[in-house]
Structures are given as structure tokens and as C-alpha cells.
Specification:
With 462 residues, the chain is α+β, with helices and mostly antiparallel strands. The protein folds into 3 domains: 148 residues, Beta-Lactamase, CATH 3.30.450; 83 residues, Helix Hairpins; 153 residues, Heat Shock Protein 90. α1 packs antiparallel against α2. It starts with 11 loop residues before the first helix and ends with a strand. It catalyses: ATP + protein L-histidine = ADP + protein N-phospho-L-histidine. Keywords: ATP-binding, Kinase, Membrane, Nucleotide-binding, Phosphoprotein, Transferase, Transmembrane, Transmembrane helix, Two-component regulatory system. Its main location: membrane. Pfam families: HAMP, HATPase_c, HisKA.
Length: 462
Amino acid sequence: MKLSVPNFVRTTTFRLAVVHAVMFTVFTLGLLVYVYHSTAGYLRRQSIAELDGEVQALAAAFNSGGMARLNQSVIERSSVPGPFFYVLLDAEGEKISGDFAAIPDNIPVQGSVETNFDYQTIDRFGEPQLRAANGIIIRLPNQASLMVAYDLGTRTDIADRVTRTIWTALPIGLAMSLIGGLIISRSAARRAEQLTRTTEGVMSGDLTRRAPVVGSGDEFDRLSERLNAMLDRLEHLMLTARHAGDAIAHDLRSPLTRLRNRLEAGLRDSEENEQTATVEKAIDEVDNILRTFNAIMNLSKIQAGNASRFEHIDVTGLLEELAELFEPAAEFEGLAFSSEIETDLSLEGDRTLIAQAISNLMDNALKYTQEGGALTLRGRMTRKGDLEISVTDTGPGIPAEDRERATKRFVRLEASRTQAGNGLGLAMVTAIAALHNGQLVLGDGPGEQPNPGLRAALVFSI
């Protein structure tokens, strides 16, 4: 039977946890080796150094006073309790003085040699005890032998204790690192699985699914926040596309129906003049349809940033040209037109797009302001240092609750849609403003109910 491996074991987080455990174990092992070297190793080095010092002192006594002086020094040192043992033998190997009756058999012919041996002593309970010792045996110039040794019991006990501590701490450290790694891995895998379920829900068509944010502020929370923002944007775009499709179908149904009826009527007409008029009207309807699709394409290009040719724009001159262009149109509609344009206004941007945005605002003002009303074109620098271009009219205005919606694609607040248009004018203005690091701000105009008017302002950060 094939064993099933838990999902979290195959995750990257679990592998990282295992790597963390291995690194922690290596670090712990290295630390314990260092501790051993710093304790038991230090004691050994210190003991050997003291042993060498003791041997050198006795050698100096021999050099200064011969065997008599050396024997006296050995007797004096042996009589004082201490960590060292002494044995002095003559040239025939007979004991002269010291703590032991004999020394190990590995006496050098000349020079010195280090040796380890066992010796028997009585413990504090009166029982015989075998202990280990380490010493140095030297052959004196007169063929006598001298051994200086020290007991290894204390150092061995410390070394054993340190060794036991190392072998106890090492598996504990390994177990703790693995447990910690598993806990971290399970937690990270659980968060990743939540994100996976969210994406799977969205892929299945549920655009309301959102990734959980637990409030810890970690990378998973930041990823969830970014993912949720993306899903909000995606849901908004899907709703916009759905609404756009409905709006396009609604806006094109009437002209296409009229186009079909006129062509059908033209086929029934026998008079050449009437057929010509039918074809001309059909061409007008096709032109209106093409204008709608061209507006959609232009808006898409602007929002993608593909339609910009930035240069230095003389905004004052541009506004004066537009004021001169729209003043006759306002008078023809029976509207009072005025302009208030400050001098030396300039902006880095696309002159054609800026002109189109202002023209769209002017067209809306002309379209919705009743005869006898007024509209004003202004250009000025605000106290904050922003460039503001505004169009103010005395038409019906836009209710505050509908102003944000009015800047979306294909949104027409006139439910009957009797006015000409495709619902892309303010959406186009908003896109152009965003492309130039600006925004479209809609507010109340100077009129009174039922015609409060509208103030549409393009505000650019300079």
C-alpha cells in the first residue's frame, strides 16, 4: 500500500523549515564542539603547561645542585599535598624518593617522553580505587630517571560531563528545530492554501471571493491585500464591461433599427430622389455608429497611455482659441458665454488630448444648458500651485450621488436616452486627466434649483 504524503510536506515552506532545522543543528553541533574545546581542552592544555613548568623547575634544580638538590626538591614537593606526583630513580632503576614505588616501563634512553598510566589509591570510604594519570618521564645526564605526573580524574570527570551535555543537548536542539520548522511550515502552508482556494473560487466565476487578512501585517497579509485590491479592480472591470455591453447594445439598437427600416423603405421606393435621400440618411446613421466605436477605441488608447505625445503646452493660448471657437456656438443656442483666463498658463502634455477634454466639457455644457442660461470657461492657478481649467454652466447639473458614476464608460444619467451621445464624454475627460497626472472634479454650478448648474474642473498637479 502506497503511503500518502501530506500536502504540506511537498511545499516550499516545509523544505525551508527542514533547511532551517539542518542549519540550526549544524550551528548547535559547532557550538557544543566549541564549548568542549573551551572547557575540557582548556583544562588539558593548562595541565600540560603546568606539568612542563614543574619538570623545568626540577631540571633546573638538578642542573644547579646535582642529584642531592634534585632529591631534596622531590622530597619537598612530594610532602606537600598537590596535584602532582613525583618519582626519582637512580641509574639502576631503584627508587630514591617520590610518591610511587616505580614508574612505567617506557623510560626513554635520553630526552623525555609523555606517558599515561593507571595507579591505585584509597578513596574516601577506604576502598581501593584505580585512577588514571598523565606524566612526563625524563632521562637525566647521569642516567637517573625522573617522572612528574598529575591525576586525570578531575579533568576526565569534567570532560565526561561536557560530553554528556553535548550528546543530550544535540538531539534536543534537533527536535526543537524540527518541531519549530513544522509549526512554521504548517502555518505558512495554511495561509498559502487559503490564497489558493481564493484564486480557485475566482477562476470558477465567483468574483466576490477575497483572500483572508488576519491583521498580522506579514508578507501573507500584504499579498492578500494586493490580491484583494486586484480582485476588486477585476470585479469592477467585469461589471463595467457588462454594463458597457448593455449600453452599447442599447445605444446601437435604435440607429441600426432605423438604418434597416430606411434601407428597406428605400428598396420599396421607386423614385430615384427618394432612394438617394434614404441612402444619405443611412450613411448618417452609419457615421454615428462609427463615431461611437471610434470613441471607444480612443478611450482605450488613452487609458493605456498609448496616445500621448507630451510637449510644452501654452494653456492660455489654447483656452483663448477654444473660447473663440465656442462663443458663436453658445450664442446660437441662446446662451451667455464668458471666459476668465489667466496669463502665462502652461502644462507638459498632449495638446490635442487637452483640447479634446475641454471640448467635451464645453459640448456637455452646450447640450444640457437651456436657452437663456450661461456658461463660463476659466483657467487659473490655485493657491496650492495646481493648474485648474473649469467649465461652469447653469444647466440641470449632476446630483452629488451620481457624479462618480457619471465619469464611467457608457453611463448616461438620462434614462430615456433622448439626447444624442454615447456616454463616453466624461469618461474620456477622466482618462485624459489621469494621463496628465490630474483629475476631473465635478461640483455644483452657480444656478438655483431646479437648475443648480454644474462646475466641471480639470485640476493638474504642476
